[in-house]
Amino acid sequence: MMNFNRCFGALTTGLAVLAAAILAAITLVIPLNVFLRNLGLPVIYGALDVIEYGLMAIAFLGAPWVLRLDAHVQVDLVTRGLPPRGARVAAILTCLLGAITCAALGWAGLQALMQSYARGSMVRTAFTFPEWWTLTVLPLSMLLCMIEFLRKIFQHSEDSAPLTGL
């Protein structure tokens, strides 16, 4: 299990680093395009289309990492007032709901991806490429988020156990 946790952590971190690299590229391209336009030079061809798909990729590639770190928005107004056992039950139920939601969204995304692939749908903007390429991040992200929600259910019970030993 420790090996899986290490590999899973490396995967989510790697995807987060990829998301950060995409964000860094976007933050360089936007002012560069503005600079080129102000000089009367041609702008970078297709930059807006790449930025649009890049923003979508950033959100989905970074989501499992954010969830793993609990760096997302959490409304704990109710759970703060609960006793530890009640808070644990609420956390388990929340994680189950999150896992089920991610499974449903991931399945719907996978269905859309397979349908797009089967139809041979193409995106025709500044570039032409298969539509299913843009749909790959949703099922991948939702699968990883679902796994993370399930990990939180089982991992938390181990972490909250009293320490024993030396």
Structure report:
It is a single chain. The protein is mainly α and 166 residues long. 73% of the residues lie in helices and 4% in strands. It is built from 5 helices and 2 strands, in the order H-H-H-E-E-H-H. It has helices at 2-38, 47-68, 84-119, 132-135, 137-159; strands at residues 122-124, 128-130. A two-stranded antiparallel sheet has the order 1-2. Strand 1 (122-124) and strand 2 (128-130) form a beta hairpin. The protein is globular and about 65 Å long. The two termini are 23 Å apart.
Low-confidence stretches: 158-166
Mass-distribution shape: globular
* Overall average pLDDT: 91
Helix content: over 70%
Strand content: under 5%
Helix count equals 5
Order of H and E elements: HHHEEHH
Classify the secondary structure makeup into a structural class.
mainly alpha
- Amino- and carboxy-terminal Cα gap: 23 Å
Rg over alpha carbons: 21 Å
Number of strands: 2
Strand order of the largest sheet: 1-2
The major sheet is characterized as: 2 strands, antiparallel
